[in-house]
Amino acid sequence: MPFTVTVQPSGKTFSVDRDEPILVAAIRQGVGLPYGCRDGACGSCKCRMLEGRVIHGAHQQKALSHEEEAAGLILTCQAAPQTDVVLEARTVPGAGEFAVRKLPSRVISIDKPAPDVAVLKLQLPANDPFQYRAGQYVEFILRDGSRRSYSMATAPHEVGDKPAIELHLRHLPGGKFTDHVFGALKEKDILRVEGPFGSFFLREDSDKPLILIASGTGMAPIKAIVEHMIWKRSERKAFLYWGCRSKVDLYLDDWARDAATRMANLHYVPVLSEAKPGDGWHGRTGLVHQAVMHDHPDLTNWQAYACGAPIMVQSAQRDFVARCGLPDDEFYADSFTSEADKHGPLG
Ligand SMILES: Cc1cc2nc3c(=O)[nH]c(=O)nc-3n(C[C@H](O)[C@H](O)[C@H](O)COP(=O)(O)OP(=O)(O)OC[C@H]3O[C@@H](n4cnc5c(N)ncnc54)[C@H](O)[C@@H]3O)c2cc1C
Ligand code: FES
Asked: Which of 26, 83, 127, 259 has the greatest number of beta carbons closer than 10 A?
């Protein structure tokens, strides 16, 4: 018999099958809850359980600590109800708007614009339009059933009549999927994808100024969001900070500079963490989230969207909230967790 989950304060209800994680049921029924990795590693789906009982699957301590669990917090991506449940959670209008579907995709091209970055262009079926929000991601379903997530760098309005999306992949040596992409993958290969997933997209009901902060390939969904804002002729003030190690890693520098000319209120600030004398770099250096705090010490009336390396996302959330007064619920993120992040201390 299914259980009923009620989300407060919205009052939304949905049913969850026995042993089914709450988030899986919510996505299936188009209920927009906040989430990121769907795998117990990022903490984006954390919320308070007001009533009921759940069993938690394996998850990372940094996503949900024992103390948080004892205080009644749960991860919806890992929690299966044992009774009817009442949650206190933000609902995310739009997160469940487009049905999640499995699609075959064909590799159109693989470019390598930086030493460890591949830009993958994928053809999607023409007869079955793929809809999503700028900032969302797809999952590749690998032969052994494991999955890897990549954010779309293409804004939905750019998908076109011969539907194609662009993904930006950073090579993690020893990684199951990116080793394949940087080694054997070739044009015309077929890859199975599923999507769209995620609640990382622009909250368009707000006119607060924006911090958009990315590290490395975290620029992919930020690029889609900026292109979407340009297309919508958004007049919101936005500061785009992009952190990379060195100059050769700034593979979207030209695009970002051009975007700042196409959107009057967009300011672009690249920041290098490992610039060396002789690089010819005259821009900002250091950690990208610290550059944001240096320029914007008061974030009380802002929204921040962060994407990329888990350490950058965690540091930005912690410090923007604690030191710059950003409201906790105005921080939105996709943390690019990988197998390496899933093998720390388990909860
Ligand atoms: C919501 C979301 C969106 C994402 N979007 C993007 C994106 O747009 N671009 C992007 O580049 N990435 C993105 N990622 C990350 C991406 O999904 C993959 O995790 C990443 O590309 C690594 O995949 P892989 O199969 O190559 O490596 P994995 O097989 O996951 O391995 C990663 C690293 O961990 C090591 N490792 C493997 N197993 C273990 C273990 N048991 N213990 C310790 N270390 C281990 C490997 O040697 C390797 O160095 C996203 C992640 C999420 C959750
Ligand atoms: S979505 Fe639940 S921990 Fe990442």
From this structure: 26
